[in-house]
Structures are given as structure tokens and as C-alpha cells.
């Protein structure tokens, strides 16, 4: 129907639209830009040595970095190291280029994810759209709302995003101890108890979500890196703070539009938030709507990881268990 359009998307763990939150549906959002050029790019993970190399190749596939303003990314959700992907992208792009997006989902099944690139559905791939032109305004915001509990433990053995030991003990065994009967539902139940990972010498941490467990290797694979020498602490849900986090993310995104009103708001929220909020999940969408206004089209999905700066002036990172909002306006 639209042969000249840049088409990109992904499988999800729930869909977001003006109608609210849905499951097992397809949401299509069309953006017509008067002064902004769009260029698509796609890479296959099997063609790259690492997720970081995939990020570098994706950045290199986008031409004319001088006029590039924004990169929107939809990635495989299970085979990728999201932290490495983001680092490969951001280190290969000018500092002023904003990168946002998310990792595709598969509900609470964690078996297979795919992205939409052009006219095809592809597994193990990453698709991006580059936005070019000085008339485009992009706002970003990303916040969580989880509470830490228990002891902070030292990461003593890990390899990238695969965690083996905390304080010299099996991380999987410790996780199962805290989860109790819910441990039998791993990795899905791990979404209810993410890890806060704080790098040595830093006061703030990032949240990491379990993607899979390997009983034979006694390991846990997370959506992003768990560096050796960092400190990890379990987190649990605080319903009101989760909803408030979504609202504050919307405010940050709206404020970074420099007074302009959003035409479209892309909401990427973690599947873990959806599992915790359950029937209250619409409240975080309603809270965002109250901030961005009725004139903005809402679209988005529940993901296995969110890509965004915490604030427009911060560096881009992979997040888990956040509500990440990207707002678009054209002057």
C-alpha cells in the first residue's frame, strides 16, 4: 500500500496504541514527515562477530552522519547483548545523535523474537531508521520505579551478559532462594525480581532482567552486561512508583521538546512491568497520555529491553524494567 515508506517493527510482549494495551494484536502507526528524510538499515547478528560489531555496522549503514538527528532501533530480543549493541551504535555515531528503541518480545514465553525490516519478518536481526533534517524535534525520557531489597553483592564471576557468581556463590542458586516456589517458573518469574547493577565507584545503577537460565552451566543470561567487580542487588515492585515512573518519563520527554507539543509518542515499556501491574497496566499509559496531551498519537510495545538516555543530556544505555518514551514533533 505504501511502497516508498520505511517499514520497521518487531514482535512484542504486548502492544500499546491510542486504545490502550492489548495482546496478540498488530499495531501499525504511520508517520508522515514534511521536512524530515528517513533511511532504513538492517543487520543480521549471524553476519557479525558480536552485538557490538552489529551496532557498529548498523551505524555505518546510515549515511551522512552530519545531518542525522535520530536513530530508532528495533532489535532481536533473545540473541543480542543489548549493552554491546548500544555501545557499538553510540560510539560510531556523533554524540548529538539520539538513539532510542527496544528489544523485541515474545510475551512471557522467551522462545522466539523477530523484527520487521521492509517487507520481511526476520529472526536474529536488528533494524534501524535514521531520521535526517533540522526540523525534527525528539524528546526522550526513561524511568523505572522499583525498590531494592536484600544485600548488595559483588559480581565475582560473569562473562558479558552471562552471570555465574555473586560473592563467590552460585548466582542462580541465590536467585532461586529468593524466588522460592516462583523459581520453577524461571526465566519468566525473574521479571518480577530484576537486578540493580551498580558499577564500581558509581552511586546509581542500571536495572537488568533475566532472559534465560542454564541449569547445566549454573548461569543466568541477562539482557545487558553484568560486569565483574560491579555490585548487584535484587529489586521488587512498588506499584505506585512504577506508575509514577512512567509519568515522570513522559514529563522528561515532553520537556526536552523545548516547548513544542508532541505529534507522536512512542512508548516502550518492559514486559516485567506489565506482569507486575496486571490489571493496573492501563494506568501507566493513562498517566503518559495526561502528560503528552490528547493531540499526540500513542504507539509502542512491551519489550525485553529499552534503549534510551535516562534524560536527553545523558548517554544512551540499555535499560530493563523502565518505561521509555520518545516523542516526535516537526517544526
Radius of gyration: 19 Å
> Stretches where pLDDT falls below 50 for ≥5 residues?
none
Main pleated sheet:
9 strands, antiparallel
Count all strands and give the number.
24
- List the secondary-structure elements in sequence, H or E: EEEEHEHEEEEEEEEEHEEEEEHEHHEEEE
What would you call the shape? globular
Query: What is the beta-strand fraction?
Result: 35-45%
Helix segment tally: 6
Which oligomerization state do the chains in this entry correspond to?
A: single chain
Secondary structure class reads alpha+beta
What's the rounded overall pLDDT mean?
Answer: 92
End-to-end C-alpha gap: 27 Å
Helicity range = 10-25%
Q: What tags apply to this protein structure?
A:
331 residues; alpha+beta; nine-stranded antiparallel sheet; six-stranded mixed sheet; 6 helices; 24 strands; globular
Give an overview of the whole structure.
By secondary structure, this protein is of the alpha+beta class. The chain has helices at residues 51-61, 82-90, 171-179, 239-255, 271-277, 281-292, and strands spanning 8-10, 15-17, 20-22, 37-44, 68-75, 98-103, 115-117, 120-122, 125-132, 136-143, 146-148, 153-159, 162-166, 169-170, 195-198, 206-208, 210-214, 219-222, 231-237, 264-270, 297-303, 305-309, 316-319, 323-330. The strands form 4 sheets. Strands 11, 12, 13, 14, 15, 16, 17, 18 and 19 form a 9-stranded antiparallel β-sheet that branches. Strands 3-2-21-20-24-10 form a 6-stranded mixed β-sheet. A 6-stranded mixed β-sheet has the order 4-9-5-6-22-23, with helices on one face. Helix 2 links the parallel strand 5 and strand 6. Helix 4 runs parallel beside helix 6. The radius of gyration is 19 Å and the shape is globular.
Amino acid at each position: 500500500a505504501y511502497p516508498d515508506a520505511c517499514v520497521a517493527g518487531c514482535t512484542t510482549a504486548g502492544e500499546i496504541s491510542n486504545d490502550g494495551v492489548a495482546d496478540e494484536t498488530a499495531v501499525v502507526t504511520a508517520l508522515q514527515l514534511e521536512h524530515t528524510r528517513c533511511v532504513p538499515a538492517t543487520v543480521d547478528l549471524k553476519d557479525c562477530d558480536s552485538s557490538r560489531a552489529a551496532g557498529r555496522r548498523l551505524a555505518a549503514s546510515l549515511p551522512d552522519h552530519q545531518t542525522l538527528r535520530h536513530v530508532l532501533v528495533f532489535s532481536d530480543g533473545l540473541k543480542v547483548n543489548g549493552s554491546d549493541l548500544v555501545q557499538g551504535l553510540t560510539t560510531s555515531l556523533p554524540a548529538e545523535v539520539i538513539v532510542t528503541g527496544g528489544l523485541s518480545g515474545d510475551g512471557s514465553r522467551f522462545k522466539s523474537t523477530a523484527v520487521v525490516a521492509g517487507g520481511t519478518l526476520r529472526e536474529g536481526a536488528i533494524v534501524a531508521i535514521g531520521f535526517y533534517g533540522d526540523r525534527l524535534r525528539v524528546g526522550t525520557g526513561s524511568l523505572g520505579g522499583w525498590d531494592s531489597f536484600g544485600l548488595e553483592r559483588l559480581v565475582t564471576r560473569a562473562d558479558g551478559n552471562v552471570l555465574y557468581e555473586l560473592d563467590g556463590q552460585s548466582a542462580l542458586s541465590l536467585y532461586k532462594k529468593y524466588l522460592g516456589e516462583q523459581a520453577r517458573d524461571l526465566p519468566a518469574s525473574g521479571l518480577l525480581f530484576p537486578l540493580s547493577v551498580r558499577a564500581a565507584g558509581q552511586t546509581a545503577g542500571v536495572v537488568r532482567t533475566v532472559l534465560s537460565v542454564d541449569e547445566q552451566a549454573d548461569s543466568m543470561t541477562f539482557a545487558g552486561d553484568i560486569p565483574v567487580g560491579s555490585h548487584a542487588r535484587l529489586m521488587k515492585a512498588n506499584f505506585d512508583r512504577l506508575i509514577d515512573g512512567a509519568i515522570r518519563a513522559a514529563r522528561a520527554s515532553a520537556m526536552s521538546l523545548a516547548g513544542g507539543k508532541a505529534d507522536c509518542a512512542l512508548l516502550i515499556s518492559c514486559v516485567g512491568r506489565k506482569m507486575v501491574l496486571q490489571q493496573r497496566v492501563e494506568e501507566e499509559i493513562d498517566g503518559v497520555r495526561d502528560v503528552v496531551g490528547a493531540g499526540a498519537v500513542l504507539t509502542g510495545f512491551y519489550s525485553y529491553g529499552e534503549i534510551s538516555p535516562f534524560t536527553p543530556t545523558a548517554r544512551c544505555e540499555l535499560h530493563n524494567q523502565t518505561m521509555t518514551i520518545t516523542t516526535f514533533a516537526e517544526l
